[in-house]
Specification:
The chain is of the alpha/beta class and 268 residues long. The protein has a domain at 13-147 and 178-207 and 258-266: Rossmann fold. It is built from ten helices and nine strands. The strands form two sheets. The chain has a seven-stranded mixed β-sheet with strand order 3-2-1-4-5-9-6. It has a two-stranded antiparallel sheet with strand order 7-8. Helix 1 (15-28) packs across helix 4. It binds S-adenosylmethionine (SAM). S-adenosylmethionine (SAM) is lined by residues 24, 28, 51-53, 56-57, 75-77, 80, 97-99, 114-116, 119-121. The site of S-adenosylmethionine has 20 residues, from helix 1 and helix 3.
Length: 268
């Protein structure tokens, strides 16, 4: 019998573990501090992190509201929450939709949502829920990516995927950027009753070990996985290495700007 993962009882890494190991350092980790700053979290605060994923921002909040603050993380995805729970067992983790949260009204001093809003089935309803569970005087702080056009690496990657694999595949990579237009973001916030939210564009960077790694994460660690097969992946790496060399440093590592909006709304 050949020795392979199946015959040696080895499980492959879950998508959530890949997300945590690669995507969080490449794109998300650096935003946890600024988002907690924007929320103004203090010792003793009760904080909710909506769409917490593997908990990068939730753990940052927990480091700030010690010694007697409450921190809860909520996500619809059980795989993400399993990683979050293993990394921080003392935080309360909830598997739930953001659109219908299992908390009483006026339960939290701060509600965070880092790069989740653009994926919600009903973003307006989710924002209304965030407002419902927030205490008067508390803050909602959320981040969404700026438009793909302002993130040069992603603008080119989306164009290349569109050219090679068509609109459906390209749309999967466009999805994280759909609330990047300031007016579109403002309209969603206003519709949910969060008028007067402060919006700031903040600079950040995407960082990958190489162009191949960047493509691997976007294709294998994201919703494109079922749309591009192994041969397509190799073709995409070859084309990206040819066309996107300007994003790579002499050691092959890739860095390009990936700005985001941070919105803050204070409950009157
Ligand atoms: C890009 S990840 C961001 C995760 C985390 N905030 C971070 O910064 O690493 C988006 C997260 O939104 C979650 N999500 C998407 N739709 C959701 C919904 N309707 N309710 C709750 N979570 C949702 C996904 O499961 C995923 O964990």
């Amino acid at each position: 019998m050949p020795r392979n993962a199946a015959t040696t009882g080895q499980v492959t890494k879950s998508a959530a573990e890949i997300y945590d190991e690669f995507f969080v350092p490449a794109l998300f980790g650096e935003w946890a501090g600024p988002l907690c700053d924007a929320a103004g979290i203090k010792p003793g605060d009760a904080v909710l992190d909506v769409a917490c994923g593997t908990g990068a921002t939730t753990r940052e909040a927990a480091a700030r509201n010690r010694p007697n603050g409450r921190v809860a993380g909520l996500d619809r995805n059980s795989g993400m929450l399993a990683v979050a729970q293993a990394k921080a067992p003392s935080i309360e983790w909830f598997e739930s939709m953001a659109e219908d949260m299992p908390f009483d009204a006026n339960s939290f001093d701060s509600v965070l949502c880092q790069f989740g809003l653009m994926f919600f089935e009903d973003p307006v309803q989710a924002l209304q829920e965030m407002r419902r569970v927030l205490r008067p005087g508390g803050r909602i702080a959320l981040s969404v990516w700026d438009s793909a056009d302002n993130s040069p690496g992603y603008a080119e990657m989306i164009a290349l995927i569109d050219e090679m694999f068509g609109t459906v595949a390209a749309d999967a990579l466009r999805a994280p950027f759909v609330l990047g237009d300031r007016a579109a973001l403002r309209a969603v916030l206003d519709k949910a009753g969060l008028q007067g939210a402060r919006l700031a564009i903040c600079s950040g960077n995407a960082r990958f070990a190489s162009i191949r790694d960047w493509v691997r994460m976007d294709v294998r660690g994201w919703t494109l996985a079922d749309l591009i097969d192994d041969a397509g992946f190799e073709e995409l790496v070859a084309k990206a290495e040819e066309r996107m060399v300007r994003f790579a440093a002499s050691d092959g590592s890739v860095t390009f700007p990936a700005p985001a909006h941070i919105a803050v709304w204070t409950h009157p």
